[in-house]
Amino acid sequence: MRLLQVHNVSIRGISACVPKQTHKNVDLEGYEPEDLKKVIDTIGINERRVATSEMTTSAMSTSAGRTLLKDLNWSNAEIDLIVVVTQSPDHVIPGNSHIIQKELALRKDCVTIDLNQGCAGFIFGLYTISQMMSNGDHKRALLFVGDTITKYINPIDKGLKALFSDACTCTALEFNQSASALNFSLGSIGEKYKVISTLTDENNAVRLNMDGLEVFNFGLTEIVPSIEFLLGSIGREKEDINYLVLHQANRLLLENIRKRLKMEKLQVPYSIAEFGNTSSATIPLTMVQCLSEALANGVNRLVLCGFGVGLSWGVVYLETEGVVCSKLIEI
Amino acid sequence: MEALDQTEFLEFFINQFDDPTREDISIDTEYTLLKDWTSMQALIVLTSINENYGVTLKIEDYRNQRKVQDLFKLVRDHTGV
Question: ipTM surpassing 0.90, yes or no?
Fold first, then answer.
């Protein structure tokens, strides 16, 4: 593992957009009542947000971006760079960054980048965008992270259906020479790429396929050592951390990680009961939904950790001050 | 470190199910044939082994076990006692 440090960049704001359409897990078909109760209790997901067939990742992302620019009182003309992380773009060609650039009327010389990353995508996206900003080439930038992943779920796959949900987020960043360093640790195990992957079925539909036991064991194996490595590398203790925001995979795994790290429940916020596993969006969505007041006030020492598709994982330690979190957008 | 005890492991294993008083599970039970051995139950047992014994198993090894005794031996081999 390596410590990767990025300087001169601050997070200024975060927004999140979810579909209004809510599906309750108690209504899932194909389970015996006692089995369904056990599934819900174990994964900790009561409700999921599901995009309609017309609702696109770019539309939800644009809505998050527009709201955040307004709440920060930033002009679209000030945005020098956008990075878009999604695995459910509107089209195979072009990437969503171009659509978002058009919808937000960003400048022609605003740099537009697309990344294909999954549940660790917020951390990989944050690393990419902050690296591009750290020399001062880009003063203000937006990181869009999110998916309409439910479009890839086979309607008869009751296991995946119970887990996945849709959300898109926008994070605003600013070049700031007095900012404390962003400290990253990133990793991936390419030989396990098939563990979470899409297949094309007999009807030519793209369907998500996941080996649950393998994914789970990956989470048990890699996450705790990665967080401990990162904190050790920068001389921080777990007690120094105000909040650890984990990818909201499922409650069984989250609780295992929290207990092994010996962190208090108040330090590790969950949004999974209301919003399920929104793939790449879970970390910023949890920050907006659970930490908006805390992030707005004073300095916060945060560890953010995403893990999944790849199989890959990313952890960042950062300090924030006065982060504007927009009210959750529902469309 | 104390050696892993087979009787205690059986008790631990039964406790992972909804009814910890059930009497149909012994050390020789082929647990993968139990009606309530589901993919969710497999995740619960895997996680509890990790939390209780500090052991992370290889998934192919975990999938290859059939009887409680086989799983006990696998965990014991990983704990090194």
Answer: no
